[in-house]
Amino acid sequence: MISRLWMFGDAGPVVHISPGGVFQFGGLTITNSILYGWLCSVILIVILVWVARKISIKPRRGLVQYIEAAAEFIINLVEGSFEDKKRARKYVAFFVTLFFFLLFNNWLGLIPGVGEALHVGSIPLVRPFTADLNGTLAAAIVTMAVVYTASIRESGGIIKYLSHFFIGSPLNPLYLILGLLEMMTDLTRVLSLSLRLFLNITIGEIIIAVFSYLGHVAAPITAAPFTIIEIFVGALQAYIFVILSVMYLAIAVNNASESEDQHLTEEDVADKISLRPKESLSG
Questions:
Q1: What number of H helices and E strands is found in the chain?
Q2: Is 99 exposed, middle or buried (0-12, 13-18, 19+ CB in 10 A)?
Q3: Residue 21 burial by CB count (10 A; 0-12/13-18/19+): exposed, middle or buried?
Q4: How many CB atoms lie within 10 A of CB 202?
Q5: Tens digit of pLDDT per residue, the chain (283 long)?
């Protein structure tokens, strides 16, 4: 591939990995990826509000049914990950919103004109939000902040939440070291979430740019197969980001539920049994 690029006698395709500032707002530099992230958010809000008004008991066709199916898929994913469905429903709205936000940003980044087509000086006007490490890192930080906050609340406090990292007494040096290592590993989740999404979207952007360059006037044809692949990759990466976030939260919440069950007294168990229907006891 490199030798093929040299044959054209120029530097090859240009792909900007780092974001570029397009204008100043209140003393802050607004980059092209932030600008496009805002634009995608507005488009997402408009579409979801429109779909919400179209939802009815009778199934509808077109875009509405696909949005409903995707939302139902994420709802089932969240509810299926928690032992307590009532607790799971508290977090459904966040994870559904997160999924659609990442999915729309991944897909809208494939639209012709995004990237090198439009420039402000030498800087592209818009570029994919999820192809910017700052964007994926921000998404991961916000997501894990929600996960940690909910985990601490569901566990009954930060001390009880931290205790699940230690399999034995923290006074034991071995258990203490293992617990600290587990906590450090837990903190790396922000980096793993952000880097996985960033690298997959960025690599896809580079591949499309390279084959568009190699195709010259036939660029739409040479880049089409990889654009189609990136549509599936964008959906897959949004799903992976969400399912990992759900699992991180579900593990902490389910552990908290198990701890509550282990601390039940004999009277609590007797009360629970007495509240069961007689049919279940006789069965």
A1: 12, 4
A2: buried
A3: middle
A4: 19
A5: 333 333 344 566 766 677 878 878 778 888 888 888 999 999 999 999 988 888 776 767 778 888 988 999 999 999 988 888 888 888 999 999 999 999 999 998 888 777 766 767 777 778 889 999 999 999 999 999 999 998 888 888 888 887 777 777 667 778 788 888 888 888 889 999 999 999 999 998 888 888 888 877 787 888 889 999 999 999 999 999 999 999 988 887 877 665 555 544 444 434 443 444 444 444 4
The beta-carbon contacts of 226-232 under 8 Å, at least 24 apart in sequence, are 227/110, 229/204, 230/106, 230/110, 230/204, 231/107, 231/110
Length of the chain: 283
In order of 20, 34, 48, 185, 263, the CA distances from 134 in angstroms are 12, 9, 26, 21, 44
- For residue 66, which amino acid is it? Y
Bridge-partner residues for 21, per DSSP?
A: 31
Location of structure tokens 């997160």: 98
Q: What is the dihedral of CA 44, 47, 49, 52, to 10 degrees?
A: -120
Q: State how far the Cα of 114 lies from the Cα of 222, in Å rounded to an integer.
A: 18
Please write down the long-range contacts of 164-170, taking CB distance under 8 Å and 24 or more positions apart: 164/252, 164/255, 164/256, 164/259
Token pair, residue 214, equals 């190699």
Residue 194 Cα to chain centre, angstroms: 9
